[in-house]
Write a structure and sequence with these properties.
The protein is of the alpha+beta class and about 140 residues long. It has a single domain, classed as ph1033 like domains (ph1033 like fold). The chain has five helices and six strands, in the order βαβαβββααβα. A six-stranded mixed β-sheet has the order 2-5-4-3-1-6. It is globular.
Length: about 140
């Protein structure tokens, strides 16, 4: 299993919107960045990801699971763009803010710290565990 981070502006698509989709989940559509698209093409069913609210909140607020592997994005006729489907698994016990991530030197190499604009990004197993542990502390 691999781990990922999915960024969304809560005013456009929030954690509550994702949860409302239930087990059916939702396409993670509208991504128009080649690197982010390529990461989605690597994803496998069952991979897990952090759901991250960008803009003012800037925090990991939940955990999602990939329910459908890369397929054409239904929001465009341009065959360059793919997406995956994800469903909400559970909220974080407490949100983990970008400031908290940046303050933890163990996460200095995390893509979120180094390239915070990328909307879909990989998370290492160690980073995943650190953030999950921070949410419990």
């Amino acid at each position: 299993m691999k781990y990922w981070l999915f960024k969304s502006e809560p005013s456009v698509w929030s954690w509550d919107d994702q949860v409302a989709k239930g087990d059916a989940g939702e396409e993670w559509d509208g991504v128009r960045n080649y690197q982010a698209r390529n990461f989605m093409r690597e994803m496998k069913k069952g991979d897990q990801g952090f759901f991250y609210h960008s803009q003012s909140e800037k925090a990991v607020v939940g955990i999602v699971e990939v329910t459908a592997e890369s397929h054409p994005d239904s929001t465009t006729d341009d065959d360059r763009w793919d997406c995956v489907d994800i469903k909400a698994i559970r909220p974080m016990e407490k949100p983990i803010t970008l400031d908290m991530v940046k303050a933890d030197e163990r996460l200095d190499e995390m893509v979120l710290v180094r390239n915070s604009r990328l909307s879909v990004q990989p998370v290492t197993k160690a980073e995943w565990q650190i953030i999950c542990d921070l949410a419990k502390s």
